[in-house]
Design goal:
Length: about 210
Amino acid sequence: MSAPDLSADKAKALKLTPVSRETLGRLETYVDLLLKWQQKTNLIAPSTIPNVWTRHVADSLQLLDLVQDVRTWVDFGSGGGFPAIPIACALADKPGVQVHLVESNGKKAAFLRESIRVTGAPAQVHSERVEKYTQTPVNSVDVVSARALAPLKVLCDQAFPLIERGAIGLFPKGLDVAAELTEAAKYWNIEATTVASKISPEGCIVIVKALKPK
């Protein structure tokens, strides 16, 4: 099976979310590994492979525009590595950065560790459930993210221990965002804003700045 031609999609992604030459090299290494593992392990939806650079890489990198001075980033349910690995690749030249990937699936955790090894990204995999990880999180967290993991109400439940201590939550969402915000607001007092996605016309990112249980 020949590899798909991703050059046009990559060019489109880099126009949407420009990166340095060094970061691009790391991202190319990561995407190559992703496509190799994808043949045996389902890391992304097969239908999205031709658009992996826009649909996944650029969609991840756009989160960096929403925060400043990040040192510690925690990503829940990292799966195939989005958004955590592209973010770690982009932040690799920034001193003191560490990205923590929480992924309970053993095969996916193994893939993430190999991704970190081959890219040299400043990241660490925690092969455990989110609920266990947040019982003993790293001391200071700037950002907590989750992509295509759970409804917003559940993400609030999971991320509260980190947001309570000062982290900002970044949660990409789709067409159902209004309903998810309404449902979450039944259980949480949420200080949140939404920003339109650069990648998907129907998508947005929910930025959670504060949470208090009702």
